[in-house]
Design brief:
It is found in: Cell membrane. By secondary structure, the chain is α+β, with helices and mostly antiparallel strands. The chain folds into three domains: about 35-150, Beta-Lactamase (2-Layer Sandwich); about 205-300, Helix Hairpins (Orthogonal Bundle), CATH 1.10.287.130; about 305-450, Heat Shock Protein 90 (2-Layer Sandwich), CATH 3.30.565.10. It is about 50% helix and about 15% strand. It is built from eleven helices and 13 strands. It has a six-stranded antiparallel β-sheet, with helices on both faces. A hairpin with a 5-residue loop joins strand 12 and strand 13. Helix 1 packs antiparallel against helix 6 (about 165-200), helix 7 (about 215-270) packs antiparallel against helix 8 (about 270-300) and helix 8 runs parallel beside helix 11.
């Protein structure tokens, strides 16, 4: 087996081309209708018939009035069983031919007229043999034999030989399996590499030993791919360890700060400065938690996926959000609730993504929030609208970045950490979906989630 992809393509291309040319050039020579020399036994039979016809004519003197009858009698008498004899005079007259055979006979006579080298040729179900020289006094005739063809070609084969373009097309079709095998053998490792790349893009960082096989070029690409996956996995693990270590180191002084704040409150009572310190400490604690959540959601290997229905997935989230809205004196509408639509993913991650967006809408809305669901053949669309201050056009694509804050009403004073929408965006992308921001019909911000439906053909 040729291990180099370049050499394999080059060799198979020229092999196929050589086969096509060989077939196109050689097949016409295999046509049984070609003019061919006589076999030895056929030559002896023709010579024997020639001698018998000459002897017959020598015993029957010529008659100027009925000269052609004696020729008929001679060829009828010595024609082999199931065959017929023809005589062609020096003037070109054909004795013994049937009218419907004249075109074939003239064709053969035009190609074989040398008695020293008699030949034979097939015409459909007939075969002509000759010529043999017949001497009748001062006249000379050429003797031809018409007999049934021993084996006749199919009409389709004859059509191939008669039409070179059709022969070329059939030859190319015959060579197609070889070319298809070449294409399949080239595409197979490419497909493996593509599926492996899709898995890596989805966060599944595992090596693929099967990629390190096949042609040298794909083998080298597979080895480099596995090395890349190993490097990415090491980087992700290092990032996880770094964030864990940072959070652990930050939690210790943060806990001490909270403890010191509580002691100061006990000794000196409440104060504006203490309240400020406590609020910032709580915010810092929430930011650390969100950083850890973001880090975990970016690592797809931590997610355990399963098939689940949309209404089962989000019903509790919507009920809790409705209750919270009532406590805040706001209205949460669900004009189109989710149905039993199939999804595939991590339930906790998908549930948290919608909860984060709905809580975001509750936080910034003035009095009204709307959550609606829609489905089509490809996926599920979720719209979350609020009547809050909204977000400018320039900021809509940036709000999904970690720690990004707008200069408008949705700012640090709202109590957020700037990581909520980044967590949502990572979770939705891991499930091959998308999330975007737009103007809301209610006057505030609309966040739209799209997730693909789960089918048996999914990943």
């Amino acid at each position: 087996m040729i291990s180099s992809l370049t050499t394999r393509i080059f060799a198979i291309f020229w092999l196929t081309l050589a086969l096509v040319l060989m077939l196109v050039l050689m097949l016409p020579k295999l046509d049984s209708r070609q003019m061919t020399p006589l076999l030895d036994n056929e030559q002896r039979q023709g010579t024997m018939i020639e001698q018998h016809v000459e002897a017959e004519l020598s015993q029957d003197p010529p008659n100027d009035l009925m000269w052609w009858r004696r020729l008929f009698r001679a060829i009828d008498k010595w024609a082999p069983p199931g065959q017929r004899l023809l005589l062609v005079t020096s003037e070109g007259r054909v004795i013994g031919a049937q009218h419907n055979e004249m075109q074939v006979i003239r064709n053969f006579i035009g190609q074989s007229d040398n008695a020293d080298r008699p030949q034979k040729k097939k015409y459909g179900r007939l075969e002509m043999v000759g010529p043999f020289s017949i001497r009748d006094g001062e006249d000379n005739y050429q003797l031809y034999l018409i007999r049934p063809a021993g084996s006749s070609q199919l009409d389709f084969i004859n059509l191939l030989f008669d039409r070179p373009l059709l022969l070329l097309i059939v030859t190319m079709l015959i060579s197609s399996p070889l070319l298809l095998w070449l294409a399949w053998s080239l595409a197979k490792p490419a497909r493996k590499l593509k599926h492996a790349a899709d898995d890596v893009a989805a966060g599944n960082l595992r090596q693929r030993p099967e990629l390190e096989s096949g042609p040298q070029e794909f083998l080298a690409a597979g080895a480099s791919f596995n090395q890349m996956v190993s490097a990415l996995e090491r980087m992700m693990n290092a990032q996880q360890r770094l964030l864990s270590d940072i959070s652990h180191e930050l939690r210790t002084p943060l806990t001490r700060l909270q403890l010191a704040t509580a002691l100061m409150r006990r000794r000196h009572g409440e104060g504006k400065e203490l309240g400020r310190i406590e609020m910032e400490a709580q915010r810092l604690d929430g930011m650390i938690n969100d950083l850890l959540v973001l880090s975990r959601t970016q690592h797809k290997n931590a997610l355990v996926s399963e098939a689940i229905k949309a209404n089962h997935l989000w019903s509790d989230v919507l009920e809790d959000a409705r209750f919270e809205a009532e406590q805040m004196g706001k209205v949460l509408e669900i004009p189109y609730p989710p149905g039993p639509w199939p999804l595939y993913g991590n339930p906790s991650s998908l549930e948290s993504a919608l909860e984060n967006i709905v809580r975001n809408a509750l936080r910034y809305s003035h009095s009204k929030i709307s959550v609606s669901f829609a489905v089509d053949k490809k996926g599920i669309t979720v719209h979350v609208d609020d009547d809050g201050p909204g977000v400018s056009q320039e900021d809509r694509e940036q709000i999904f970045r970690p720690f990004y804050r707008t200069d408008e009403a949705r700012d640090r004073e709202s109590g957020g950490t700037g990581l909520g929408l980044a967590i949502v965006d990572n979770a939705i992308q891991q499930h091959r979906g998308s999330v975007k921001a737009d103007n809301s019909p209610l006057g505030g911000l609309r966040l739209t989630i799209w997730l693909p439906l789960y089918t048996t053909h999914s990943d």
